[in-house]
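EI: anyone free to look at a 87-residue chain?
SC: sure, send it
EI:
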Amino acid sequence: MTELTEQQLTALRNLDRKRAGESVDFINIADARALTEAGFALRQASGWRISDRGMALLQSLTPSPPAVSAGATPFRISRPPTEGPSE
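SC: here you go
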């Protein structure tokens, strides 16, 4: 697997946010080119966009929440026991 620098990973996350319609910070051209060479981004006339491979990489880096059965409560909130009157 290709190793990404922190800056390249940040650029990849920004491309994913851009794909989702969010505003993103400046994307460094050198980082975008490196992502394109590795197959994680695509160059288009309108700029760079994340590729399917790039999205798969981000998904593999993001821990998924534990599975919960339908209708099950994933955790229980309990109240501390009430204390009776002090003597």
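EI: The two ends are 68 Å apart (CA to CA).
SC: 👍
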